[in-house]
Amino acid sequence: MGDVILTMKGIDKSFPGVHALDHVDLEVRRGEVHALMGENGAGKSTLMKVLTGIYSKDEGTITFEGKEVEFTNPREAQDAGIVIVHQELNMLGHLTVAQNIFIGREFMKGKFIDDRKMNEEARKLFDQLGIDIDPTETMSRLTVGKQQMCEIAKAISHDAKVIIFDEPSAALTEAEIEELFKIIRDLRERQLGIVYISHRMDEIKVITDRVTVMRDGGYVGTLITKDCTKEDIINMMVGRVIYEDPKTESQVAKDAPVVLKVEHLNAGRMVQDVSFELHKGEILGFSGLMGAGRTETMRALFGADPKQSGDIYINGEKVDIKTPKDAVSHGIGYLSEDRKRFGIIVDKTVAENSTMASLDEYMKGLFIDKKKEKEVAQKYVDILKTKTPGVDQLVVNLSGGNQQKVVIAKWLVRNCDILIFDEPTRGIDVGAKSEIYHLMNELVAEGKSIIMVSSEMTEILRMSDRIVIMCEGRKTGELGIEEATQERIMHAATLRN
Predict the structure, then answer these.
(1) What does the alpha-carbon distance between residue 459 and residue 442 come to, in Å, rounded to a whole number?
(2) Cys-Cys crosslink for 313: which of 132, 166, 261, 362, Cβ 3.0 to 4.6 Å?
(3) Which domain holds residue 289?
């Protein structure tokens, strides 16, 4: 690692009702990958927004390349050489790769945009990074992983000296994560300073040199990655010990009734002849590799996508589910993996989102009974320990983990008996994960039943009573938790019919 390129000292920031940053320190050196970790709501994103000029700081100093700086917008930060690669990609799908990379600073030939020159320059960037992407390809046709690589190329094109990666691997496959790590190591070799924000503990140990931990808006400390354990980092993040032991036996009563039965479900290429049962009080895990068809199966079951054939039974009675409204009326709630598209309306309040699936119960004539709405929303804020200044707070201002809790609250307010949790802890820190696991166990203890789709093997083994495994749109295995191992699950997840 080289000399210090960036120092943030005593950074303080408050919003109405929230002390978001409490005198936080961060130091980044040239040629290092520096992890920034903390629970959702710890202040990581706010700190990076202060650095890049999205927010102004109340107190503290930022020193970049030996000079004190204060950027007033992201463009100023980019021009200086500090660039963020966001978790939620900011590319325009209808434009080409090259057009996206140079948007707002296009190469011109007279009065016209010089696409040929932009394609050449984009190709040079990809060659530097060792990436095989066609600059003339339309962005929407690329995989999420390739789009991520384009974001990185765009960052390099700004002559970046510090690159901030915000949850870069959240939507990537294992192969794409390897490709990402190769590029990050190359950037480190070139003496760039890299800030790496992630909740994936295993990645932190593989790719980073140092770790700075934040908790409740404050600075906890900085560790050298190779000299600390996963447990050290977790304890600093949450201030308590969290255990992640796998479940060894099913918690479901032997005579528990079947609450949901799916027979020969078909919905396009990704859902082919899928059958399974869910018992009362059970957590049924759905495992498989990316693209196995698990989410597509849940969307077809919930009526979000049309099914071609198959039968669905709830408590022994055949039901016809054509729309999500049908599913909800039969007591099924669906926590989507894409919470921002399908789970919440970010420019509405916590209270409004909490009652969204049960509005009929909160009407007083033609109007919503706001007092009653706020009371029930507050109840679930308390139960779920959602970090928010109040139920009138807009959901867009909450951290990812707390947004997820609002989605869960929506279905708890609705009092659904069958809950589909699709990637319930994606992008959520270890402390919030533990709270959601605890909540799921409480729900099944009360007699509710959960289908949990997860790409995390540790999560599947920790939470499931029984596991259904899929590969390429088909069910390829089913294991009781007593017999389940990572090896057996992976074997079934790679069985191609």
Answers:
(1) 16
(2) 261
(3) 258-493
Cα 329 from Cα 351, distance rounded (Å): 22
Clarify whether residues 164 and 270 are in a common domain. no
| Same domain, residue pair 231 and 272 | no
pTM score? 0.59
Q: 39 and 130 share a domain?
A: yes
Contacts of residue 440, Cβ cutoff 8 Å, sequence gap at least 6: 283, 421, 424, 450, 452, 463
Question: Is residue 253 included in any domain, yes or no?
Answer: no
**Tally of residues, the chain:** 497
User: Taking Cα atoms as reference points, which of 11, 83, 82, 88 lies closest to residue 46?
Assistant: 11
Quick one: pLDDT at residue 289? 75
Angle among Cα 420, 427, 323 to the nearest 5 degrees reads: 30
Residue 247 lies in a domain: no
**pLDDT (mean) for 345-370:** 86
Rounded to whole angstroms, how far apart are CA atoms 205 and 231? 12
Domain match, 217 and 341 both: no
Residue 388 lies in a domain: yes
Closest by CA to 17, choosing from 340, 398, 347, is 398
Which residues, at least 6 apart from 266, have a Cβ–Cβ distance to it below 8 Å?
A: 272, 273, 274, 307, 308, 309, 310
Is residue 317 located within the same domain as residue 421?
yes
- Whether 180 and 316 map to the same domain: the answer is no
**249 within a domain of the structure (yes/no):** no
Look at residues 326, 282, 278 and name the one whose alpha carbon lies nearest to residue 304.
Answer: 326
Domain match, 192 and 293 both: no
Span 216-268, pLDDT tens digits:
889 999 999 999 988 888 788 777 555 567 788 999 998 999 999 999 999 98
Mean pLDDT to the nearest integer, 420-440: 82
